[in-house]
Design a protein that fits this description.
This protein is mostly beta strands and 271 residues long. The protein contains 1 helix and 12 strands.
């Protein structure tokens, strides 16, 4: 009986963390129902147009309303003006509208939307409402898990607004864009599950691109990453982002990500 119970716990934990696999992009799966995910996101990118580094601290809190709907709130803190300043935040929701699950695989589709507000100066042609621009983004995500390999892709529309109160969006650059991503990840360790407390090691690579709809300017980045999962509940991510090609002005395209993610499961049962 204990072996049977252990088997289902292991399968459950595998499914949970296949949902939260990628470092930068979001999969089509959600935070587990009635659970809270806390993510401490940090990035350090090399400035292109001046000396120094651009540091961003972006804490996130995600809540799974049920298996199909999740919500997320984020805050943006940056050292762009040589001091740590809170520049804004965002609200995000995702709806998983299709799921085909099997014991060793699943395929899922989800739609999402994000609204962000930001008071920082507008300093590049790239549109990025996660930390730089006020605006909104809406898109579709498809994710396929086959045993230890996960593949996820998305396409979205992103629109930038003025960064109020002091920075209107420039008239000479496009204010909306099409974004596209492709992410691939594989569980490297353990080779065989025997205990849900085993440390997991995932290797992955993510491709992120954007095209400004008005003028056709674009970029494409690659992000190799390593991920550690402890006790099926805590996650540690390290990633490096490198520009492959670009025809637009970007203030800091290359740098590192460091994320620390922790999930509080089944909150209602603990009341």
């Amino acid at each position: 009986m204990r072996r049977i119970l252990l088997f289902f716990v292991v399968i459950y934990c595998q499914n949970i963390f296949s949902q939260e696999l990628f470092v930068i992009t979001d999969p089509a799966s959600n935070v587990p129902a009635n659970s809270l995910g806390v993510n401490v996101m940090q990035s350090l990118f090399k400035e292109e147009m001046k000396s120094g580094y651009n540091y961003h601290f972006m804490p996130e809190v995600s809540y799974g309303l049920n298996k199909n709907i999740m919500f997320r709130a984020s805050a943006f803190v940056s050292n762009r003006n040589n001091d740590l300043v809170t520049e804004g935040g965002s609200f995000y929701t995702k709806y998983r509208f299709y799921s085909a699950d099997d014991l060793n695989s699943h395929f899922r589709l989800a739609a999402y939307g994000r609204y962000s507000f930001n008071n920082a100066d507008i300093h590049q042609e790239q549109i990025e409402i996660l930390g730089h621009n006020s605006g909104f983004e809406t898109g579709i995500i498809a994710t396929k898990l086959i045993k230890k390999v996960a593949i996820s892709s998305s396409v979205s529309f992103e629109k930038a607004f003025d960064n109020k109160p002091s920075y209107p969006f420039p008239d000479n650059i496009g204010d909306n864009a099409t974004n596209y991503t492709l992410s691939l990840g594989k569980l490297m360790y353990p080779k065989k599950y025997t205990n849900y407390k085993q440390t997991n090691i995932n290797l992955m690579v993510e491709f992120v691109g954007q095209t400004i709809n008005e003028n056709g300017k674009s970029y494409l980045d690659v992000m190799p990453a390593v991920q550690f999962i402890f006790n099926s509940q805590a996650r540690l991510d390290f990633a490096y982002r490198q520009e492959l090609v670009s025809s637009m002005i970007r203030s800091a395209p290359n740098g590192f990500y460091f994320n620390l993610y922790y999930t509080f499961f089944d909150l209602k049962s603990k009341k």
